[in-house]
Amino acid sequence: TWGREGLVNGEQILRVFLLGTPKNRTSLATWETLMQQESQAYRDILLWDFMDTFFNLTLKEIHFLNWAAEFCHNVKFIFKGDADVFVNIENIVDFLERHNPAEDLFVGDIIYNARPIRTRKSKYYIPETMYGLSIYPAYAGGGGFLLSSCTMRKLSRACGEVELFPIDDVFLGMCLQRISLKPILHEGFKTFGIVKPSAAPHLQTFDPCFYKDLMVVHSLKVAEIWLMW
């Protein structure tokens, strides 16, 4: 589907999967076998020795940026996204043709003036002792974001200067604040899915007409990604 490698509008697309170890240790042996087979066949896996859980996503963010800064010297731009997103690579490449990889760029569905959740039962609960301010810095909502190689290297350095934070999206927003870079809100990124326009009540939100001009839509099931492709 959209994750395939190859040429798109004359630009070479490469793909890597970012993984930690599974939380369910009972199936670890089978998982390791499958990972080895995938890695040997496609050489497209980055695997780190920490459990792949929600609160470890910040570690994944840091390790990926450090890896990219060290080994991806010829990369112009990076799209980083979740597994449950639909991405229109052609639209992204068209958008990037107007930008210079040597200049700062960070694009996504940017969330402004979000407040820390103080409710203990919430998945996103953050106590005041961890974050005392009332507002988070601007950050890209989950699903995916786009950045230049220039920004990638700056964020890699900033990750070592900003205190770890358990919500990866917010942590990256803190890193953007550290390097004094304002992220760009783009209407082509739909973090919370597609809202049916009132002028077209007959259309379904899974209609291709909603997707042809977008860049990223979150979230879709695997079968839906295949069908949309």
TrEMBL record:
Signal peptide per UniProt: none
InterPro entries: Glyco_trans_31 (IPR002659)
Alphabetic keyword roster: Glycosyltransferase, Golgi apparatus, Membrane, Signal-anchor, Transferase, Transmembrane, Transmembrane helix
Name of the protein in its database record: Hexosyltransferase
One of the protein's GO biological processes: protein O-linked glycosylation
Gene Ontology CC annotations of this record: Golgi membrane
Pfam families referenced in this protein's UniProt entry, alphabetically: Galactosyl_T
GO molecular function ontology, one term from the record: hexosyltransferase activity
Topology term for the membrane: Single-pass type II membrane protein
Entry keyword Transmembrane: yes
Places the protein is found: Golgi apparatus membrane
PANTHER family: BETA-1,3-N-ACETYLGLUCOSAMINYLTRANSFERASE (PTHR11214), UDP-GLCNAC:BETAGAL BETA-1,3-N-ACETYLGLUCOSAMINYLTRANSFERASE 9 (PTHR11214:SF91)
Protein family: Belongs to the glycosyltransferase 31 family.
Database matches in Gene3D superfamilies: 3.90.550.50
EC number(s) given by UniProt: 2.4.1.-
